[in-house]
Write a structure and sequence with these properties.
Largest sheet: 5 strands, mixed
Distance between the termini: 33 Å
Shape: elongated
Radius of gyration: 21 Å
Strand content: 25-35%
Structural class: alpha+beta
Length: 265
C-alpha cells in the first residue's frame, strides 16, 4: 500500500482521499489457501466451498497472538496525565474488536510455495481464487516494525464523542473511529511476505461464521488442488468446481524445470 500517503491523509482528516488511496491498491484477484488433514473439519470446509461461502474466524483462533494488538495505549503517558490504572484498562478496550471475525486473503501468485506450505498442510489442501468485484470492504494489511502506542488520540476522541452525543457533530467521532479500526489491519513486519488483504465481519458468536462470497464483493473464479491433495479430495473439489460453474478443478504439480508450481485442469 501507499502506506505513508494513506496514513497521512487519514491523520489529516481527509477521509475520502484516504479511502481512494486505499481502494487504488486493492488487486482485481485475491487468493485463499485452505488446510485439509482428513479430519471432520474437512467436511465443513467442502460444504462452505460448495455453498460459495467464506469462513470468518474469531481472532483467537488465528495463528498470530498479536491480532488486533498493533495499536495499544501508552500507559505511561496516560498515567502521567493523571489517569488511574482501572481507567487506562477501560480505554484499552477501545482496541478490542474481538466480536469481529477475519478472513485472510493474499495477493501472492497461486504458485507461491511458502503459502502452500504454511496453510495447506504440506500441499494436501487447496487454494481458491476470487475475482474482486467491489473493493470497499477489503483492506490491505499494514506491516509495522513496532506496535503503535497512542495516548493523546484517546483523550481527543473522548471530546469528539461528547460532541457527537451532545451536539450531533459526528464528523470528528467518525474520524477517530476510523483511526482505531486500523488496529484490525496491522500486523508485525515479519509477516510482510504474505501480502495479506483481509475482510472483517461482525460475528454472532465467539468462534466464527460463514459469509456468502457475493456479500463480500467477490466472485469465486478458480479452485486449485495441492500437489499432495488426496485423490478423493481432488474428486470432491472437482465436483464442487463444476457445480459452481467453474469447470474442472486445477491440479498442482511440480514444475519440471523451475522452482514453481505448475497447475493444469
Amino acid at each position: 500500500m501507499k502506506t505513508d500517503e494513506y496514513l497521512q491523509l487519514l491523520f489529516e482528516g481527509k477521509m475520502d482521499e484516504a479511502k481512494n488511496v486505499r481502494l487504488s491498491t486493492i488487486p482485481d484477484k485475491l487468493i485463499k489457501f485452505i488446510w485439509l488433514d482428513g479430519s471432520k473439519t474437512d467436511d465443513k470446509k467442502f460444504l462452505s466451498l460448495e455453498r460459495n461461502e467464506i469462513w470468518f474466524a474469531q481472532k483467537d483462533f488465528l495463528n498470530d497472538p498479536y491480532e488486533y494488538k498493533g495499536m495499544l495505549l501508552d500507559r505511561q503517558k496516560m498515567s502521567e496525565a493523571g489517569y488511574p490504572a482501572d481507567i487506562i484498562d477501560y480505554y484499552q478496550t477501545i482496541f478490542d474488536f474481538s466480536d469481529y471475525g477475519i478472513t485472510c486473503l493474499s495477493s501472492n501468485n497461486i504458485d507461491y510455495l511458502p503459502m502452500w506450505a504454511y496453510y495447506t498442510n504440506n500441499h494436501k489442501g487447496f487454494c481458491v481464487e476470487y475475482e474482486v468485484i467491489k473493493k470497499d470492504c477489503i483492506h490491505e494489511v499494514l506491516y509495522e516494525p513496532e506496535r503503535i502506542k497512542v495516548a493523546s488520540l484517546i483523550l481527543q476522541s473522548r471530546e469528539a464523542i461528547k460532541k457527537a452525543i451532545n451536539l450531533g457533530q459526528r464528523e470528528q467521532a467518525d474520524f477517530y473511529l476510523t483511526l482505531f479500526l486500523q488496529n484490525l489491519f496491522i500486523k508485525a513486519k515479519s509477516w510482510e511476505h504474505e501480502k495479506e488483504y483481509r475482510i472483517v465481519y461482525p460475528l454472532n458468536n465467539n468462534v466464527g461464521m460463514n459469509v456468502p462470497v457475493n456479500k463480500l464483493g467477490m466472485r469465486t473464479s478458480r479452485i486449485v488442488a495441492g500437489i499432495n491433495c488426496s485423490e478423493n479430495d481432488v474428486i470432491r473439489l472437482n465436483e464442487i468446481s463444476n457445480e459452481l460453474g467453474l469447470g474442472n478443478v486445477y491440479k498442482s504439480r511440480v514444475h519440471p524445470e523451475k522452482y514453481t508450481i505448475d497447475y493444469v485442469r
